[in-house]
């Protein structure tokens, strides 16, 4: 089994024997580092216990083989000794050797029992390590579910924040438009203030002019009187002009009549002159004839 750190808060637990891979999530990088160190520690402890068990099994196997090789000779010795005992009424040295071999077998059996107890202890340690790893795996799975829920909650909160940002952007656009309108109103207000100042200046000038209004009124009255006199004089002149026009018309009419009478007189005079000329010619002819 191996554990690989994939990011600041996530890792992978791979089991090549079971051909499985688990993804683990943690609330902080410190917890991830602590879990990785604990995993490596348990893995090394399990490997060390496995190596020790293998060494002890090999040692016990070698010892058993040596005991097996010695057993036939002992059996043969016991059978021989038994025969000798039967023949020699149980001799002392053979019994001592057999007792020594039995003591060695007891010691080997005691060592084997001790090794079995140690192996059971190490097996229990391995089981506890596996239980801790299983518990850690379950906690990691629960942590993954917890992080999934937090991720969904964060995603939902992110969507809400995005919608809120869009609303705020719309409000900012409205605020910018309102600022632009306020700027226009400010410019218009400045223009109105300028116009008001101009009007105040004009009003001040009118007030100054109002101070000389009585004098102007007096002058206007004098001018009005003069105007009335001029109008009266003008009226008299107009009447005279009408009279003169009438007289001129009458004079023109008389001149026209005179011209007509003069023309008639000239015509008559021309006739008389012609008659006189004819008369002279007649007289001339008469004088010549005489």
From TrEMBL:
One annotated Gene Ontology cellular component of this protein: cell projection
Bias-annotated ranges (Polar residues): 59-82
Cofactor: Mg(2+)
Location(s), subcellular: Cell projection; Cytoplasm
Residues in the signal sequence: none
Residues of the WH1 domain: 1-46
Name of the protein described by the UniProt record: Homer scaffold protein 2
Organism: Dromaius novaehollandiae (Emu)
Organism placement in taxonomy: Eukaryota, Metazoa, Chordata, Craniata, Vertebrata
């Amino acid at each position: 089994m191996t554990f690989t750190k994939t990011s600041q808060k996530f890792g992978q637990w791979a089991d090549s024997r079971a051909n499985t891979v688990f993804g683990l999530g943690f609330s902080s990088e410190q917890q991830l580092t602590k879990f990785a160190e604990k995993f490596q520690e348990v893995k090394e402890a399990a490997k060390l216990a496995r190596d020790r068990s293998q060494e002890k099994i090999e040692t016990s196997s070698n010892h058993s083989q040596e005991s097996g090789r010695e057993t036939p000779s002992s059996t043969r010795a016991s059978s021989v000794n038994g025969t000798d005992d039967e023949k020699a009424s149980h001799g002392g040295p053979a019994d001592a050797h057999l007792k020594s071999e039995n003591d060695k077998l007891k010691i080997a059996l005691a060592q084997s029992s001790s090794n079995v107890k140690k192996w059971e202890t190490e097996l229990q340690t391995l089981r506890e390590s596996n239980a801790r790893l299983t518990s850690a795996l379950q906690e990691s799975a629960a942590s993954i579910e917890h992080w999934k829920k937090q991720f969904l909650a964060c995603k939902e909160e992110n969507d809400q924040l995005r919608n809120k940002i869009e609303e705020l952007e719309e409000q900012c656009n409205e605020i910018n438009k309102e600022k632009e309108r306020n700027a226009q109103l400010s410019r218009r207000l400045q223009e109105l203030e300028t116009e008001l100042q101009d009007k105040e200046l004009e009003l001040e000038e009118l007030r100054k002019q109002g101070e000389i209004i009585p004098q102007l009124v007096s002058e206007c009255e004098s001018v009005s009187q003069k105007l009335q006199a001029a109008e009266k004089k003008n009226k008299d002149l107009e009447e005279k002009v009408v009279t003169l026009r009438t007289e001129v018309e009458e004079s023109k009419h008389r001149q026209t009549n005179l011209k007509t009478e003069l023309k008639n007189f000239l015509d008559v005079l021309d006739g008389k002159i012609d008659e006189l000329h004819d008369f002279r010619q007649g007289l001339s002819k008469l004088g010549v004839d005489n």
